[in-house]
Amino acid sequence: MSGEGQGDIVDELLSSVLGGESGSEAEIAKEQALVRVRVERRRRHLVTVIEFDSSDVKALDIDGIAKELKRRLAAGGTVRENSIEVQGDQRQRVKKLLVEMGFREENILIDETITET
């Protein structure tokens, strides 16, 4: 038995367990994902909610997307299930940034109304 072959298998298993899916899987998931962007008013404050609807949500790395959006928008936010919440009305900026991240513009739907919660 060769030590090299076992090392390759171990590396593949570690990357799959640690969420290191191949870049092509993540890109395909981004291109196929349907994204809905809406704004809610919560206690007099506006919150932008970005919902992801995809057959393979785990491949999207929502935590990484949220981190990048918060950094680029200079706004606080959080991840809840399959959605990201960002402080303020950021609809148009979020759409632009998601397109830059590899999401298809046709699959990003923006709700122009503000929902009261």
Q: What does this 3D model show about the protein?
A:
There is one protein chain. The chain is of the alpha+beta class and 117 residues long. It is 40% helix and 31% strand. It has one domain (3-116): 2-Layer Sandwich (Translation Initiation Factor Eif1). It has 4 helices and 5 strands. A 5-stranded mixed beta sheet has the order 3-4-2-1-5. The model has no long low-confidence stretch (mean pLDDT 85). One of its GO terms (biological process) is regulation of translation. Keywords: Initiation factor, Protein biosynthesis, Translation regulation. GO terms for molecular function: translation initiation factor activity.
Q: Which architecture per CATH?
A: 2-Layer Sandwich
Considering the protein shown, what is the CATH homologous superfamily? Answer: SUI1-like domain
Number of domains: 1
Structural class: alpha+beta
Helix and strand element order = HHEEHEEHE
> How many E strands?
5
Report the end-to-end length measured between terminal Cα atoms.
Answer: 62 Å
The CATH topology turns out to be Translation Initiation Factor Eif1
Low-confidence stretches: none
Mean pLDDT: 85
- Biggest sheet, open or closed, and with what strands and sense? 5 strands, mixed
- Overall geometry: elongated
Strand content: 25-35%
Radius of gyration: 17 Å
User: Could you name the CATH class?
Assistant: Alpha Beta
SS element count, helices: 4
The share of residues in helices is: 40-55%
Q: Output the strand order for the largest sheet.
A: 3-4-2-1-5
